[in-house]
Amino acid sequence: MHQPESKNEEMETVIKVKDPDDTVLSQPQNESTVNKETNTYKRNDISSNKLSKKVFRSQESMFIELMEIGHVETVYNLFIAMFILYLSYNILDDYFVKGRITLASETFHKGFKNIYYAFVMWLILQLYTFGIYYPLKLWANIRNKLQHHEYLQLAWSAFWLLTYIISIGLFFYITAKVCLVYDIRYASSLALLLDATRLLMKQHAFVRVSCARVLSSGKTFAETIENVEKPNGKQTLDNNGDYLGIPPFRKYLYYLFAPTLLYRDNYPRTTHIRWKFVALRFMECLAFVFLFAIVFENQLRPILIDFGEKKITPELIVRTYFAILPPVVLMLLSFVFFLLHSWNNLTAELLKFADRRFHGDWWTSTNYFQFFRRWNTVVGDWLYEYIFRDFYMHINPSKAAATFALYIVSAIVHEYIISISLRLLFPVMTFLYIVGGMILVHVTTWIPKNIGNLNFCLCFLIGVTLSFGSYPIEYYAKENCPKEQYTSWSDLLIPHMWACRN
Hints:
The protein has helices at 62-66, 70-98, 105-111, 115-131, 133-145, 150-181, 186-217, 221-228, 249-257, 275-304, 314-350, 368-374, 377-394, 399-422, 428-443, 449-480, 489-493, 496-499; strands spanning 13-18, 24-29, 33-36, 39-43, 52-54. The radius of gyration is 25 Å and the shape is globular. The protein is mostly helical. Helix 4 packs parallel to helix 7 and helix 7 (186-217) packs antiparallel against helix 14. The chain is built from 18 helices and 5 strands. Strand 1 (13-18) and strand 2 (24-29) form a beta hairpin.
């Protein structure tokens, strides 16, 4: 969740944004605005129970700002040097031991099995996401024609609401079914499911915002487009510069590719593309792919390859967890750097998207409440605005209940992605996320700040190893020690690492 710390500071700001048509809009706002670590929020009116709403602004990525400090740049260069030496070692080791240079080719081969099926499914999901704009247009137009028939209008909207809910379920189900039926494995499956989830979150954000505008303004899609094309087209904009009805398709199209999950009609834009910056971010993405594969094949896999062949004891489990801690943490941190820094900055630069705060300085957190707010602001902002905020305002005005709903949704989606990718029913992520996460959020706030960061780092390393390390352990236990049958619920729910103890 992302809430401003300063609640009483009143200031007048002028937010200048540039839309995809290069039209500069200047929007004065006499609202409470606060810059909290990585995000900017404005205070809503009393009717929204004083919940904040994010306002985008031009700002560089956290790592890019830190790189301006010479010492941090030296640390970055040190990591690059270590990566070059690590890669060189693996190349030489492959050449002298195996007689050929593999560069983790076995991991690539198994991880990207049937990638062409994943690509075709990804194209279908993209087309579907583009296409939802037109049913939304149809709903708005017919609803407007039924404005004098209240019950028909209500039935029409209820029908489309039910259709929308069913489509969300089918979106998840069909994507998972394709991964299972066509045996799309590991990396390909993970990439497909992650992007499917991203597309679904974007769809929901756009539908949620557009429907709210139609219901509040009564403007139809046709009326909005007709007025936009007129010389005085800005009459369809409200005081904040937002469209009163469904926005034009070009706005939706830009949003689908922008590195954000929150829909706005306009975002802060840069004036040009820095191609050298793009090249550096692309090289970082490429380096991550090889680093992740090599660490898995040469450091993690040798530890777990025979797990389950012998009797699994508590002593073996403890030794295994401590042994996999360094590679698991390295793989997770490199994935976070790749996704939240390299990839998002790459796409942001190509699209001239100016708000680059995709994460905060989560490594300085003194408790888990700070960590969850700073860890991944792209997903965190979506969860806050469309899960926490909507639950709080429309279902139950309890922050505790809204927070619990947020944790539930996040845990289920994480478990869905990991379970389908690895073909495992092993809900350790759900347990640790809901139970462990909520406990740590409250407990760690009591710890003094002078030792809070040390405690956070310790809990973070343990949590990462338990949550992300348990899945490869269970995977190899399943491979080496399969159960005699999978007919009952107990056969599916009991972990293989537990069943192999007997």
